[in-house]
Amino acid sequence: MAVMDPIRADVLAIKFIPNVARDLAENLKLRPDQKSVAMFTCNIDDVGYTAIDEATKKAEVEVVYARSFYAGAAHASGPLSGEFIGILAGPDPAETKAGLSAAVQLIKEDACFYAADPDGKIAFYAYTISRSGTYLSKVCGVEPGEPISYLIAPPLESVYGVDAALKAAEVKMGVWYGPPGETNFGGALLTGSQSACKAACEAFRDTVIGVARNPKDYEG
Q1: Which residues pair with 39 in a beta bridge?
Q2: Is 219 part of any domain?
Q3: Which NCBIfam families match (predicted)?
Q4: Distance from C-alpha of 200 to C-alpha of 37, rounded to nearest angstrom
Q5: Is the same domain home to 20 and 41?
Q6: Domain residue limits at 176
Q7: What is the pLDDT of residues 152-168, one digit of tens each?
Q8: Does residue 2 fall inside a structural domain?
Q9: Number of structural domains, the chain?
Q10: For position 130, which CATH number holds?
Q11: Does residue 107 share a domain with residue 16?
């Protein structure tokens, strides 16, 4: 492995419920028009969150449940658990399947972590969402369609990198994920123009790689 080699997530399990049982629907807080759900697990949570947001842009679905599992995929409760579960609700199986297909496609072909060191032991996520869906826009407190920089790295790298990202472009903090999160990483969602979000991602990337190269250099 080399610096900037992609580290891709794997989808571990997928299931559909065409007509959700009433008690489960109540606990998921489904609306009367939300009859069906689609769910999946994957082994990288931040890619999973990005994917379920993508689903809301490609189908008539809403994210009704999304959680990270503590300690990450290396300490998962089972071989199909990974570190993330997402549940999408829609009016019928066709819409929920369309949403899930969009999520899976993004996981397989687009969003991924990258290696910050030659051994691949330090990984980071610096992904520009050019047009947010209904899920992450709500998390950030912006309107759907606004761009977002999704930035995640190990604890120290994340704090140092977020500071660099905020200084590199006209972006503002939507959400700060102070370390340690459930999977012992940290980061932020930043908002701004698409070009600013891209510049913020690039600054975060360069900073995290710089920390990996010189972890104890604090002079500059």
Answers
A1: 15, 87
A2: no
A3: microcomp_EutL, PRK15405.1
A4: 35
A5: yes
A6: 116-213
A7: 999 999 999 999 999 99
A8: no
A9: 2
A10: 3.30.70.1710
A11: yes
Taking the C-alpha atoms of residue 209 and residue 186, their distance in angstroms, rounded to an integer, is 16
Helix, strand, coil shares of the chain as percentages rounded to 5? 35, 25, 35
Number of H helices, E strands in the chain: 6, 10
Q: What percent of the chain has pLDDT over 70?
A: 99
Structure-token pair, residue 59: 């189908």
Q: CB under 8 Å to 74, separation ≥6 — which residues? A: none
Q: Is the predicted pLDDT of residue 5 greater than 90, yes or no?
A: yes
In a domain, 1, yes or no: no
How many CB atoms neighbour CB 35 within 10 A?
A: 19
Contact 53, 127 (CB under 8 A): no
- Supply the pLDDT for residue 70: 85
Q: How far apart are the first and last CA of the chain?
A: 28
Q: How far apart are CA 55 and CA 77, in angstroms?
A: 26
Which residue among 47, 82, 111 closes a domain? 111
* Residues paired with residue 40 on neighbouring β-strands, in sequence order: 14, 86
